[in-house]
Design brief:
This protein has about 300 residues and is of the alpha/beta class. The chain is about 25% helix and about 30% strand. It is elongated. It binds NADPH dihydro-nicotinamide-adenine-dinucleotide phosphate. NADPH dihydro-nicotinamide-adenine-dinucleotide phosphate binds next to helix 5.
Length: about 300
């Protein structure tokens, strides 16, 4: 197996990873980045970003990530396709396997692997995934133009995606398990004032119907236990995310949900020379700008660690 020595290895390519790369490259740490399963991260599956400072007219998620990448490469970051599959953080040289074919020996590692969409966990959801069931309205909404669809969830993501779908689809059923929405007041207002969104409160999805495609959804009222069939051809799930930290289990301290624990006010993990930034260590803020900020912290922490160890 090929072994490569790297001074600063960055795993993941969302706002945290690219910001770490920009800082690490400008500090001459010669960063190597592996982009992971979803190059550009979660912002590549959103449309408009209106709350990132510096874009007074807003921008688009995929374009923003292209800009981040270009800026990281401008200062010499080696951006590569590939997925980290295994680690060994026993010694001062941190070993990371890429696609099970390459072994990286890194002085410092910045983990910025982000988080992935959660699913309801019912059988029909997985069986019809990609055949009418989707966790990304922005990616797949287009296929359901002029049709009726359903979306599950009550957070900002679900609210944002419901209004997005409402522009494309005839009708959007929003299935909410409680009698209130977690989404911000502004987003709730937008949802409740969109005429072709019907919010169904206190409802649970029993089954997504269909064989080779979605032909409906069976939901039940949690309070009255009454079932209702929704005639939909698309079913979207927007119920939050899980941190992508599985390969670090047993090496890096994490909470019960798998979010990496960092020393407050820093990006330091329990392993010297291994730092974490972005959504993989943040279950509270989870914004592009906070992820970027924590990526900057990780690069500065890595730089100081290397300087203290006298590694050049
Ligand atoms: P959240 O964790 O905020 O919300 C998840 C939603 O899914 C909750 O309403 C939850 O219900 C519901 N849910 C969870 N599990 C199930 C289930 N099994 N069945 C039915 N419903 C379920 O996730 P989001 O992805 O919406 O948002 C993540 C973070 O990103 C938040 O901090 C949010 O504010 C932020 N965000 C900001 C945006 C913006 O500023 N433009 C856009 C999108 C996200 P319950 O409420 O009952 O727990």
């Amino acid at each position: 197996m090929e072994i490569e020595k790297v001074n600063c290895l960055i795993i993941g390519s969302g706002p945290a990873g690219y910001t770490a790369a920009i800082y690490a490259a400008r500090a001459d740490l010669k960063p190597v980045m592996y982009q992971g399963l979803q190059p550009g991260g979660q912002l590549t599956i959103t449309t408009e970003v209106e709350n990132y400072p510096g874009y007074p007219k807003g921008t688009h998620g995929p374009q923003m990530m292209e800009d981040f990448k270009a800026q990281a490469e401008r200062f010499g970051t080696d951006v590569r396709f590939g997925i980290a599959t295994k680690v060994d953080f026993t010694g001062p040289i941190h070993k990371v396997w890429i696609d099970d074919t390459k072994e990286i020996h890194a002085n410092t590692v910045i983990i910025s692997t982000g988080a992935s969409a959660k699913w309801l966990g019912i059988e029909s959801e997985q069986r019809l995934n990609g055949f009418g069931v989707s966790a990304c309205a922005v990616c797949d909404g287009f296929f359901f133009r002029g049709q009726d669809v359903a979306i599950v969830g009550a957070g900002d993501t679900a609210a944002e995606e419901a209004t997005y779908l409402a522009k494309l689809c005839k009708k959007v059923y929003m299935i909410i398990r409680r009698d209130e929405m977690r989404a911000s007041k502004a987003m709730q207002h937008r949802v409740l004032n969109t005429p072709n969104i019907e919010v169904i409160w206190n409802a649970e999805t029993k089954e997504i119907l269909g064989e080779n495609g979605v032909s409906g959804a069976l939901i039940t009222d949690i309070k009255t236990k009454q079932d209702r069939k929704l005639d939909v051809t698309g079913f979207f799930v927007a119920i939050g995310h899980t941190p992508n930290s599985q390969i670090f289990k047993g090496w890096i301290n994490m909470d019960e949900q798998g979010y990496i624990i960092t020393t407050p006010g820093t990006s330091k993990t329990n392993v010297e020379g291994v730092f974490a930034s972005g959504d993989v260590q943040d279950k509270i803020y989870r914004q592009a700008v906070t992820a970027a900020g924590s990526g900057c912290m990780a690069a500065l922490d890595a730089e100081r660690y290397l300087a203290a160890k006298g590694i050049h």
